[in-house]
Amino acid sequence: MLKADLHDLATDDTLTNGYAMSLNRTDLNIFYLWNPGPQTSRDVGVFHRHQSLNSLLQILSVGTHDARATVQVNQQRTALCLTRMIFAHDGDWAGLTGWTRDAWFRLSDTFGNYGDFNVKVRPSTDEHGPTEQIPYLEDRNLANSTVSASKDPEPKL
Q1: CA dist list (Å): 62 to 9, 51, 68
Q2: Domain enclosing residue 122, as ranges
């Protein structure tokens, strides 16, 4: 790989370069894709404050969740770096909802060859519902084609 062009990632503060955030029964998951470059530290995650109100709109309680961390990215030279942050929670994230971006990237080499890839997450479930989100890559050129492809791709990360 010589170059990676990243597209359609989040741009909000500590969610910069994020492509998905999801909540399940026990975890908050945030997924990031980083531009290749020198090893560096990045601040990631969310700080969430919520209030419970009664019918008269009086504050009953205020809660906070600090799901932030500093991580090292690009530890491997010339490699594309994806990060999955998992923060444990007690299930009370009122007002915080998950999201997914239509993020993708193009990898290019010195000869002009390139490939376009979607970066996605899919849920893993058990009898009680979603348990975790699993990241995977998808060939962008085959994503909307009628060519038969695996309906349940194995994680490639």
Answers
A1: 31, 4, 19
A2: 3-49+64-91+100-139
Within a domain: 126: yes
Could you tell me if residue 122 is inside a domain? yes
Backbone angles phi, psi at 7, to 5 degrees: -135, 145
pLDDT digits (tens, 9 = 90+) for 54-96: 777 766 666 777 889 999 999 988 888 999 999 887 666 767 7
Report the candidate in 108, 106, 83, 141 with the shortest Cα–Cα distance to residue 6.
106
**Domain-embedded: residue 81:** yes
Asked if pLDDT for residue 148 goes beyond 50, the answer is no
CA 60 → CA 49, 91, 96, 140, 142, distances in Å?
14, 18, 18, 48, 51
Total domains present in the chain: 1
pTM comes to 0.78
- What is the distance, to the nearest Å, from the Cα of residue 51 to the centroid of all Cα atoms in its chain? 26
Tell me the C-alpha to C-alpha distance, in Å, between residue 148 and each of 52, 115, 136: 49, 19, 18
Residue 107 resides in a domain: yes
